[in-house]
Write a structure and sequence with these properties.
By secondary structure, the chain is of the alpha+beta class. It has five helices and nine strands. It has a five-stranded antiparallel β-sheet with strand order 1-2-3-4-5, covered by helices on one side. It has a two-stranded antiparallel sheet with strand order 6-9. It is flat, with a radius of gyration of 27 Å.
Length: about 170
């Protein structure tokens, strides 16, 4: 068995373990496209789908808005270089082309699914820290004045109210 297919089977099994399902249609499969769906939905209630293509692209499929999908392949900067002007009043001179970037295509099927798996794990399954508010005297005084009605601030509260303020800030 080819090493790319071994890698493909290994990562496909890992994806199914964490709940990612393959939702490829027969037509897509015949074209060399594989579509995968995450086990949860995005903030708008739509499925989160990714596709790997035989051409080397890996894309996130978007179900809403004007853009049907966008590439998640790595990007490579390309120097525009110079171009000789052949016609017009500036013939014979050179002008700089714009610098741009292009996608780095991923050749093997195992390498594409490995890249997709790493992308999904990095962006969807790693625990991101929740916003932690700064706990300082200013925030404690503000909470005491405006939420608990203590006109002189945190220091003037009794210990029960101070504990309630600290608990509320840490929620």
């Amino acid at each position: 068995m080819n090493s790319q297919y071994k890698k493909y089977e290994h990562y496909r099994e890992a994806m199914s373990t964490i709940g990612i399902t393959e939702v490829t249609t027969t037509r897509q499969k015949n074209n060399g496209t594989r579509v995968y769906r995450l086990p949860f939905k995005d903030a708008y209630g739509y499925d989160i789908d990714f596709a790997t293509y035989n051409s080397g692209y890996v894309r996130k499929l978007v179900k809403y808005g004007y853009c049907p999908c966008y590439q998640i392949n790595k990007r490579e900067k390309i120097d525009g270089g110079f171009m000789k002007i052949t016609t017009g009043p500036y013939a014979g001179l050179y002008r700089k082309r714009y610098d741009h970037s292009k996608c780095v295509l991923i050749d093997g099927i195992g390498d594409r699914i490995e890249y997709l798996f790493d992308f999904i794990m990095r962006n969807y399954f790693v625990a991101k820290p929740k916003f932690q508010p700064q706990i300082n005297m200013d925030s404690l005084n503000r909470m005491a004045k405006y939420v608990f009605g203590e006109p002189l601030g945190f220091d003037s509260c009794d210990s029960h109210t101070q504990n309630a303020i600290l608990k509320r800030i840490q929620e």
